[in-house]
C-alpha cells in the first residue's frame, strides 16, 4: 500500500507518517521501481501502536521500536507525568477564574491585574496607563516575588479615596508637560507629586532598594522610549527628592 492508503487506514495524515519516519519511530519501507514507498500490514500495525501510545500521553520520542515488556514501569512514569499535568492545568484554571472574576486582562498575574485596574479608576490617560501597565509587567517579571508584593502593597494604598483623587489629577498634568511647560509649573508638579506619594506610602520601609539587576536599566530604557525629555527630567527629580524624604 502507498502512504495515502496507510494514513487513511490508520486514521492519521500522510504528513504524520512522514513525521514518524523523520523522528525514527517508523521504519522506512522498501520502494517500488517507480520510487514510491510500499507499506505492508506490519507498518499499519506499527502506526496503530504509535497512535495508541501517543493518545495515552506517551511522548513520541520515547516510544520503543519493539514491544516493551516493562509495561508497568512505563505506565507508572506516564501516570506521574499526567498527574503533574493535571496539577498544572488545575492551577491554570484557578488563575483564569481569578482573572475572570476580577475582570482584568490576562497579561498580568491576577493579583497585579486587579491593582492595575485602579489606573482606570483614577482616570489615568490611556498613554500613561499603557506605560504603567508595561512597566509593571517588566518589574513583576524581572523583580520577582519581592517586587510583586511591593506593587500590591503600593496599589492597595493608592486605592484609598484621597489617593485616587490626588493621583488622577497628577497623572493628567504629567501627561501633557513638555519643553514648553513653564519651570514654575514643573516645580509645582514635582512638589505635589512628592507630597502625594509621601502621604500615601510614607510609613512603608522603602529604604532597602529592590535588587533588580539588569531590570533597572531596562525599566529606564522603556520609560525613555515612551516619555519626552521633560517628563523624564521631572521623574528623575521626583525620585531624587523622594529618596531623601523617605529615608
TrEMBL record:
Q: Quote the Pfam families the UniProt record gives.
A: MerR (PF00376)
Task: List the keywords (alphabetical).
Answer: DNA-binding
Protein name in UniProt: MerR family transcriptional regulator
Keyword flag DNA-binding:
yes
UniProt xrefs under InterPro entries: DNA-bd_dom_put_sf (IPR009061), MerR-type_HTH_dom (IPR000551), MerR_fam (IPR047057)
Drop me one GO molecular function for this one. DNA binding
Alphabetized Gene3D superfamilies for the sequence: 1.10.1660.10
> Which residue ranges does the record assign to the HTH merR-type domain?
1-62
Amino acid at each position: 500500500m502507498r502512504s495515502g492508503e496507510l494514513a487513511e487506514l490508520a486514521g492519521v495524515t500522510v504528513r504524520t507518517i512522514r513525521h514518524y519516519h523523520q523522528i525514527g519511530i517508523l521504519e522506512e519501507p522498501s520502494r517500488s521501481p517507480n520510487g514510491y514507498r510500499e507499506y505492508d500490514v506490519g507498518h499499519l500495525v506499527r502506526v496503530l501502536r504509535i497512535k495508541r501510545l501517543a493518545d495515552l500521553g506517551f511522548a513520541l520520542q520515547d516510544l520503543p521500536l519493539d514491544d516493551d515488556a516493562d509495561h508497568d514501569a512505563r505506565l507508572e512514569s506516564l501516570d506521574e507525568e499526567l498527574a503533574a499535568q493535571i496539577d498544572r492545568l488545575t492551577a491554570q484554571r484557578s488563575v483564569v477564574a481569578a482573572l475572570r472574576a476580577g475582570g482584568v486582562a490576562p497579561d498580568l498575574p491576577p493579583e497585579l491585574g486587579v491593582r492595575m485596574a485602579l489606573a482606570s479608576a483614577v482616570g489615568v490617560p490611556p498613554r500613561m496607563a499603557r506605560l504603567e501597565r508595561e512597566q509593571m509587567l517588566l518589574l513583576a517579571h524581572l523583580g520577582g516575588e519581592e517586587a510583586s508584593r511591593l506593587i500590591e502593597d503600593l496599589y492597595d494604598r493608592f486605592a484609598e479615596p484621597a489617593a485616587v483623587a490626588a493621583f488622577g489629577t497628577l497623572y493628567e498634568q504629567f501627561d501633557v508637560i513638555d519643553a514648553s511647560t513653564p519651570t514654575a509649573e514643573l516645580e509645582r508638579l514635582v512638589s505635589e507629586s512628592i507630597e502625594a506619594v509621601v502621604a500615601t506610602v510614607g510609613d512603608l520601609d522603602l529604604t532597602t532598594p529592590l535588587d533588580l539587576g539588569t531590570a533597572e536599566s531596562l525599566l529606564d530604557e522603556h520609560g525613555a522610549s515612551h516619555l519626552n525629555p521633560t517628563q523624564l527630567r521631572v521623574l528623575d527629580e521626583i525620585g531624587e527628592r523622594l529618596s531623601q524624604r523617605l529615608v
